[in-house]
Design goal:
Elements: H1 14-21, E1 27-30, E2 36-37, E3 52-55, E4 60-69, E5 78-85, E6 92-98, E7 110-118, E8 121-128
Parallel strand pairs: 6-8
Antiparallel strand pairs: 1-2, 1-3, 4-5, 4-7, 5-6, 7-8
Bound molecules: zinc ion.
Zinc ion binds near residues 33, 35 and 44.
Length: about 130
């Protein structure tokens, strides 16, 4: 598998991208006030500390909002969701949602993180959680 590093990887985002290549979602978290931070930043937006750690969230989330994204001629559109992670209100990961009917997107549905490889880059995605799992 050839690995194409995202062109926007820099000092602040490297742990995020390297985590994905290792099969896990790694987010920034402030060591001082424990606020989760995403997208990655060098400074905590809650307390302004620059003491940033990196941790993996549980992968559990709720579908907060979405857009329907065309994917090209002859291909089904994709649902891109704002997944609000269980770890913190308004901690969103924007990613494709699998197994969703385009004309009946279940806002508020419980989601589970899965990682998907596309064109050599591993990216987050979410799957709807079965009723008995949530
Ligand atoms: Zn903080």
């Amino acid at each position: 598998m050839s690995v194409t590093w995202p062109s926007r990887m820099d000092h602040d985002t490297a742990p995020y991208w390297k985590g994905l290549q290792e099969g896990k979602l790694v987010l920034c978290r402030c060591r001082q006030c424990r606020t989760w931070i995403h997208p990655p930043r060098a400074c905590c937006p809650a307390c302004w500390a620059d003491d940033i750690d990196h941790e993996s969230p549980s992968g559990l989330a709720t579908l907060y909002s979405c857009v329907i994204q065309p994917t090209g001629p002859g291909r089904s559109p994709e649902v891109i969701g704002w997944a609000e992670l269980d770890e913190q209100p308004e901690l969103f990961v924007v990613a494709p949602i699998s197994d969703v009917e385009i004309d009946a997107v279940p806002l508020g549905a419980r989601l589970l993180l899965e990682l998907r490889e596309r064109d050599g880059v591993v990216l987050p995605a979410f799957a709807l959680m079965a009723e008995h799992e949530s």
